[in-house]
Write a structure and sequence with these properties.
Chains A, B: It catalyses: 3-(methylsulfanyl)propanoyl-CoA + oxidized [electron-transfer flavoprotein] + H(+) = 3-(methylsulfanyl)acryloyl-CoA + reduced [electron-transfer flavoprotein]. 2 copies of one chain form a homodimer. Chain A is α+β, with helices and mostly antiparallel strands and about 600 residues long. Helices cover about 55% and strands about 15% of the residues of chain A. The interface between A and B is large, with 102 and 101 residues.
């Protein structure tokens, strides 16, 4: 089925939860208005619904093909990418200096969500290109920026990230690709990279590979990695294309999902010459640091992919449940009803909606923090928002993507037997979603980052601050429940459950802080549950804030149906999903004993 | 990778948890011994490892094909099925009267688990045939039994269940296939059936379709459905094959998983004649009742498939984790280690093991109850075990299959990026598992059965009895913790968590009983969480019982490594999985408010 951008929920989130007004008031965004943002998002919706979404299923059934080093993408992808570039969508969040639109991340995030929901496999090409632009903007030389960024913004060239090698998956210390200096910042690269998304394709004239490699005298481990630009075609000083570089696509992977996205094995310097020509970015041995700029942006973007995939699966399941007639209602008049009337179908749809809308709200709140961290006039506010954004990136990435697997799986289940038939489409989301908790750092990697850098390193300060803010929302909920005539029970329920979930969050945080010295493995045995706990609580907090807004008579009058839905989603989430926080905390806080036993199982 | 039957865990479960001795003492099983059971299971392991497991991946990549009504199964399947039949495996649990081995379900269950773990898609053929044999044994005429059962036991013929029609999925009241009487118990059938597993194939000489259809004057709804035998080839009185019946395979489905299993659309009576020849089973209009005999056996069997799929995914993930070297250990000496050393990989593997081994123990305990319900000399014990088995069937089906989806998903995650590559094999389990919570009654259908028939109908009596038994185990754990020197902390943890989980189980039960009159939808909004709660608690109870056994010095001396593993699994399950029971209960008990809000979302 076709995709409809969830414009109403997006706008609600931007305005009421993610402080769009505050972001638009930041220096540099003076010329923007809410109306302009609306217009951009409307156009975005129109474009992705018409040009991108229809290629989702066909990209799945007709994947990109490889022949003699050349890759032909799925039918229609090349034309869609051209339209994407002409619409200016690649430049949405990038600097006007190089031809971008310079819009806030808070506007870029929903636009990106829609593109990804329309077609996850297609959207990976712009997603990776975004990362390359972001990295070069931050650490490239002026010459590199002016040579490589504008063609990427125009969609004539695309970009890739080359980290993984067969022997080194998540462990970048093992990167072995060699970079032999030829002088003047030029190097010859030799090695093999795997899992390179859109590493070869026919949608653009050139491909800008950002490659991690080691120079001959580099120190071992992650401190000896440098970053190089390796274009598919060499580029003359005037930007015109020169000869083909010695980087070859040896094969494409046969994957579980995202079939429309070609995943390449790339060979660098395999032609027996002086290697693939690469240009050093920044300084030698600082490659990992630079790559992290790109990776943080990409991790956030993959979190948004999780929201997007969830939304798509939710839309299809909701439509099916309201169309498929089967069985009798438990109560009321006899006769067949749509399956949306059955309580368990409601449970599944509300679980899907709660996870989707909660993850969306959290992602947008994070985007606003990113914008403020860059542009807020008050340095203290910049600092506070920077800490918040960095804290939220692994949560958004880890929680939204794990949630998307659950949502897509429920989407299959809502369809019953039809869900298992490929033509229905629900199975594709289940397959596509499965990559999201893996690439750009597995959930475990996100959890390591979360516990190590975002909790322990600052002594739990950010977490304690958030707990206090969430408690304030609990108080608001209690007050609103007392004052409300229509929604007293619902608001009270949300307040009660959020309160308990915040307690769980505090318990997990205190456990991590207390045991980080004595038993780090005991802490890390619960690091993913802790990350999931944080996601569950923070998403639930945003849904609680949404419920407060939607219980206001003035808001209800404007959008009664929307408010009814949001309240139902928020109440359901509080009842059925927030309690997972306590379940996680109970596991985490048994970490010392559980770890002692778990350690005995290694090697079997 | 290849499959190894988990013989040690199977034996442990049979002896220490599922009362093998008690089952072997039942009337009719006098000639069996533990040694004989061991020999059967050893031979079963050898057979499935060598003959069935190697076809798992090839069946996935080379599915059955359809051409002009004929179906050719995946390479090797026909020969494997012949070997299966010659080994006598089809007759394992069936009556000696017709040529079966007459073994207890408690022996049949692990044998069936191994066959399914070796190759889920292959095993569906014997699984459905089992159901047909069981149904005809129970309700077929002597003539039907002697004509149709022996060839199925010999593997010359196979069987299918034909329930689903396009307009009627789970709702059998909508079945519309017509059966026009021709006299003397013979009918002409007209209609279309979908999702018919092994509805057409080339592995046997004939196929015995059991078909639900309506006679011309039948009442509406489920009380007007009759059951018919419709053989692919008509059968003469001496059992020789006659002409081809008018049942045609119109197409095969293109599915997410179990590619090796042909899923057929069957047309009955489409050749313009007097319909497909069918023979009435039992009496008219009692078809649903008869089909339930088959369905209960099939539901239990699908629950065992969940265990099997989980075991297979677990074995592959464990092997990979102990082979793949990546990253440094958190503590101890520097240098690369296998990923099994990383705490989060331990968490994933222990979650997989806990769910797999807990579900296995529960399934075997249910099998023993089934055997005792049929053969126990004391009628009161028969009755008690019958109630227990009937209570456990939806739990085994619902919990084991939902767990298998989680286990298979974790199995992909353990492999990181490699898990998303089809050649690795982990992705196949993720795809295959997804059908298990759907076919033979979705999880929601199991939950309806559980809450409606197994809780409310007996006033919660079975549940209260189980709660009391579980509390007794809690007391044993507390006593054992006080007495133990080595495992005091682990046993105490298990006791503490089991106690809390039993409380949650009681809360959910009381909520269902209390609200079944006033607000049935509020109860059914939480019916699947309640079923999952029951599964989590009962599986955890079995793992707690296993921990008690494994903490005994006499048992430890005999199998120290096994005991260490089982204790670690049980402790981990208690810490990280049992708390889900409380999370479920919290959602369930908010049902009244949550349902009031949920009901407002229908139709959007």
């Amino acid at each position: 089925m076709s995709y409809r951008a969830p414009i109403q929920d997006i706008r609600f989130n931007l305005r009421h939860l993610a402080d769009l007004q505050g972001v638009l008031a930041l220096p540099g965004f003076e010329e923007l208005s809410e109306d302009l943002v609306d217009a951009v998002l409307d156009e975005n919706a129109r474009f992705v619904e018409q040009a991108i979404a229809p290629l989702n299923r066909s990209g799945d059934t007709a994947p990109a093909t490889w022949s003699d080093g050349k890759v032909t993408t799925s039918p229609g992808f090349k034309e869609a990418f051209e339209a994407f570039a002409q619409g200016g969508w690649q430049g949405l969040q990038h600097d006007v200096e190089w031809g971008g639109q310079g819009l806030p991340k808070l506007v870029g995030a929903p636009a990106s969500e829609n593109i990804n929901a329309a077609n996850l496999a297609f959207s990976l090409c712009p997603l990776l290109t975004d990362g390359v632009i972001e990295a070069l903007t931050a650490v490239g030389s002026k010459a590199q920026q002016s040579l490589f960024i504008p063609p990427m913004l125009e969609g004539r060239w695309t970009g890739t990230m080359n980290l993984t090698e067969p022997q080194a998956g998540s462990d970048l210390a093992q990167v072995a690709t060699k970079a032999v200096p030829r002088g003047e910042g030029v190097y010859g690269l030799f090695g093999q990279k795997i899992f390179i998304t859109y590493g070869e394709h026919d949608m653009a004239e050139n491909i800008v590979h950002l490659v991690l490699a080691r120079t001959p005298d580099a120190p071992k481990g992650v401190k000896g990695i440098s970053l190089f630009i390796v274009p598919k075609f060499l580029v003359d000083a005037d930007g015109s294309l020169g000869e083909r570089n010695d980087v070859v696509c040896a094969s494409l992977e046969h994957k579980l999902g995202i079939h429309g996205s070609p995943t390449a094995v790339l060979m660098y310097g395999s032609n027996g010459g002086e290697g693939a020509t690469g240009y050093l970015v920044g300084e030698e041995n600082r490659g990992l640091e630079y790559m992290f700029i790109m990776m943080n942006a990409a991790r956030y973007a993959v979190g948004v992919q999780g929201v997007a995939l969830s939304e798509r699966a939710l839309q299809q399941a909701t439509a099916y449940a309201n169309e498929r007639v089967q069985g009798q209602a438990l109560e009321g008049s006899a006769g067949p009803v749509t399956i949306a009337h059955h309580p368990d179908v409601q449970r599944m749809l509300l679980t899907m909606r709660g996870l989707t809308e909660g993850a969306r709200a959290l992602a947008y709140v994070a985007a606003a923090a990113c914008d403020k961290s860059r542009r807020h006039p008050d340095p203290a506010e910049q600092e506070r928002n920077k800490a918040l954004y960095e804290y939220l990136v692994p949560v958004v990435k880890g929680f939204s993507t794990e949630a998307s697997v659950e949502v897509a799986s429920l989407g299959v289940q809502v369809h019953g037997g039809m869900g298992f038939i490929e033509e229905t489409g629900a199975a594709q989301y289940y397959r596509d979603a499965r990559i999201l908790p893996i690439y750009e750092g597995t959930t475990a990697i996100q959890a390591n980052d979360f516990v190590g850098r975002k909790i322990l390193r600052n002594g739990g300060q950010v977490a304690r601050h958030l707990a206090a803010e969430m408690r304030a929302t609990v108080s608001e909920l209690q007050a609103a429940a007392s004052a409300s005539t229509d929604h007293s029970d619902g608001l009270a329920l949300i307040g009660r459950r959020l309160d308990a979930a915040v307690t769980a969050y505090e318990q997990a945080t205190e456990f991590a802080l207390k045991n980080s010295q004595a038993s780090l493995p005991a802490v890390f045995l619960g690091s993913v549950p802790y990350l999931m706990l944080a996601g569950v609580v923070h998403a639930g907090w945003q849904l609680a804030r949404a419920a407060l807004v939607c219980s206001q008579p003035s808001v209800q009058q404007q959008a009664p149906e929307f408010c009814r839905q949001k309240l139902a989603t928020s109440v359901f989430y509080a009842a059925h999903i927030l309690p997972r926080a306590q379940a996680c905390a109970q596991g985490i806080t048994e970490g010392v004993v559980a770890n002692r036993y778990a350690a005995t199982t290694i090697g079997i």
